[in-house]
Amino acid sequence: YHFLPIAVRYDGRAASEGHGFQAHVGPMRSASRGAVTLRSSDPTEDPKILFNYMSDPQDWRDFRHCIRLTREIFGQAAFDPFRGKEIQPGASLQSDAELDGFISEHVESAYHPCGTCKIGRTEDPMAVVDPECRVIGVDALRVVDSSIFPRIPNGNLNGPSIMVGEKGADHILGKQPLPKDNRAPWINPRWEISDR
To answer: Is the pTM here over 0.85, yes or no?
Structure first.
């Protein structure tokens, strides 16, 4: 969620009339997958980039869920003194088909692509780099950026990209890593059935 104490388009080009507030929603675990491939054998030619947004039905379900959850949040009594009419998608849009129509017309990218060059074990057929950022099967070449993320992070890529750069630099310099620690992160035990 991005909560804004104003009502404006995501790209900032146009404000809504009057006072307002809004939430921009963006499910962080998109099931859709794109690709970056060579356009030709000419190394000076730009690659072919296919984002393939919203190609998986789960993404549509996630966006509809986000809209409905946001309506529930903004419908609470604490918002009564501040809430006006729903600007977008508009209270009249309720069904899955109506919300899908709104989503298809208004969904935008936050421009945080990553994960085109997966890090993993050398026996993983989908891995491009090993755990030390070395390109598998190529000598003296490493990839040290957000393309090696095996999963999309839950937020902007800047911090994780800096972390990867620092860790990759340690590998290149031959620094000893910290001791292994396989503690599991806390996960809400009700994550499959509840947002709360």
So the answer is: no
